Amino acid sequence: MTARLVPYVPAIGLGITQIVGYGALMYAYAVLLPHMADDLSMSLSTVFGILSLGLFFGGLLSPISGTLVDRYSGRWVMTLGSVAAAAALMLLSQVTGPKGLFAAILFAEGAGMFVLYNVAFASLTRLDSDVPAPRAISIVTLFGGVASTIFWPLTLTLDGWLGWRDSWLVLGAMVLLICVPIHFLVLRGPAQDIGVGRTGKSNDWPELTGKARRQGMLWMMVSFIWSGYVPGAIMALWVTNVQDLGHTAAAAAFAGAVIGPFKTVGRFFEMLVSRNMYPMVTYVLSLGLMGSGLVVILTFGFSFAGMVTAAALYGMGDGIKTIARGTLPLALFGAKGYGTRLGWIAFVSMAVNASAPFAFAWATQVFGGWWSFAAMLACLCAAVLTYLLIPDPRKAGV
Asked: Where are the transmembrane segments (predicted)?
């Protein structure tokens, strides 16, 4: 390992754990929950309703995990969190009814808030490293972008070979054997004073102060909520809405599969240019790409080429937005309290955006897929408008 690569080991290590973490704690449900519903004599809506409650419960714990990272750094938070996550996944293999499933999913999603993106971002920011925090965050998301690409087929294969019970055991073992040692080893470096911040190692980014700081937090949160309303709707309704435009289910699914890889493309592009890109620019670029994708689907989505192009543009924007969600609060408000701040952002966003699939499904049912996509574009426009109200700390007097 060359000396130049050593400072990047924590970001690369956490990137690997995000692949496993998101794959086991998020994407595996899409494959295994339907089979669990059949075997446990539960309806599909019931098991996914339990999952929604689990995600909401996880959001409640997100501020706690962020505060712990701010206070103690991320090594023990993420190490013990991954032990808990592994135990929760193994517990899922033992459920026999709704109560057991409810308890196991709450346990799993609660543990997930101690090992996934927000905690990883905060943990990297606490490390005393020569790698700027925004760049480290970009590297982590670059890895995490392939989680669905790897774990959907992997989980499907495991389920076919072993069944859902043993599949959960294997996934829990993967978290235990991969994530626990990586979290323990790569985060062992000295933690720096959270009042110092790491953005200054490569960028002289002033923080918002006084009234502008309060305004910045308000409008950033509102913009995050508007922009966060769209991905859940896209994930749940892409195939249905695209079919409503006249495409087959197979064509719609193929175009939807394009979104994931292009998230990674967008993140790779952002990583290449991030040295010269202020996070406010990164965020509005992500909104522009997502919006461009929806404009294309509304105008040219009746053709196959238009549908695929729309998926690619949207995927790139959504991938970059994940990075901006971590770097923009760091740039505007600094490293002090960063973990707690990300936790509250996650809590508010998850609480509000949980209704997105239901709201846009109603729009699809009543008005049709084209109008449902149009409503998503309107949400992104609202996100841009509220973004424009965020004070820029680089301007004199802010």
From this structure: 12-32, 44-64, 76-95, 101-124, 136-155, 167-187, 218-239, 245-262, 283-305, 342-363, 369-390
